[in-house]
Amino acid sequence: MLKKITEAFGVSGCEKEIRDIIIEEIKKSGAELSIDNMGDLVAFKKAKKENAKTVLLSAHMDEVGFIVTDITEDGYLKFETVGGIDSRILISKRVKVNGRCGVIGLKPVHLTSKEERKKTPGTRELFVDIGAKDREDAESVVTKGDYFGFDSEYIEFGEMIKAKALDDRLGCAIMIDILKKEWNVNLVCAFNVQEEVGLRGAKIAAKGVKPDFALVIEGTTCNDLPNVPQNLRVTKVGGGAAISVLDSASKADSDVCDMLIKAAEKRSIPWQYKASTAGGNDAGVISLLDGGIKTASISVPCRYIHSPVSVMHKADFESCKGIVEGFLEDCGKEQTEND
Q1: Mean pLDDT of 10-19
Q2: Which distant-in-sequence residues (6+ apart) come within 8 Å of 117 by Cβ?
Q3: What's the pTM value of the predicted model, to 2 decimals?
């Protein structure tokens, strides 16, 4: 599942390919499916019992990528990034442009000045080589305004997984598995678009749902790297799913955080706090909808996030999935006991 959905194309605003894959995976789950005008996919699975609690799970389908801004006379592509990408990681990376291989290039270091070597090249200095002989040849493949993304293979090594778009195809994969099971809650799974460019899809997908609780399932930053002090390591690979209390977009609901922690500890599932307030996700808009929704985020730590080689630990993925499933079980059990 992760191989299929991480290798699919889905730069923000171009999520059709990944959405079609998800629909194919969940069409036999018994959930009612709908697609809104933004392109968000919402799956609703009603509980068998009346008056059950409603839980919204949210993950975004889109990934960071690029947009073509110009084509040179020599047939090279000029571009800008779509979503937050550190330009330091771009040089010599493989991309795929409308099905054609490309490489992000830069003037050779041998030909740069001393001053140029002191600076990190930005997108204005970079270009994409798709093997075109001139502008006309390039225009047979691509036009200005076309989107393209990283070309990166899913690989398992040891207990780790390397892939592009783990942020947030891992969340999509967890929700796909959850939809294939039965729960004692009214389950709403929102597969959102355009998170990477301003949390846009979630504003539409989650509006009007009015759940009792909402969980945003994400991939998050990890800084457990050489020469980084322990107090600056945001999350640790292999340490379990990360629960966020506060970030730049939202403050997690304390009750929902407590429920997540209880679900983890009750089942002896490892977890950790996200030790940073940097970043943000769809919880920032979901928590503010419909008069306020009790919302929290649970994430899988990912090294080298927003790059073609994001890395996660298999156990952290299972931790995140297990805690979310435990949360749903507890919500359903609590409702049954109250009845």
Answers
A1: 97
A2: 109
A3: 0.94
pLDDT digits (tens, 9 = 90+) for 56-81: 999 999 999 999 999 999 999 999 99
Buried b (16+ CB within 10 A) or exposed e, 113-152: eeeeeeeeeebeebbbbbebeeeeebeebbeeeebbbbbb
Contacts of 110 (CB under 8 A, 6+ apart): none
- Does 195 participate in catalysis according to the annotation? yes
Residue 202: is its pLDDT beyond 90? yes
Which is catalytic among the residues 63, 195, 218, 325?
195
**Parent domain of 134:** 65-150
Contact 20, 10 (CB under 8 A): no
The maximal CA–CA distance of the chain, rounded, in angstroms, is 75
For residue 100, the domain's CATH number is 2.40.30.40
Whether 156 is in a domain gets the answer no
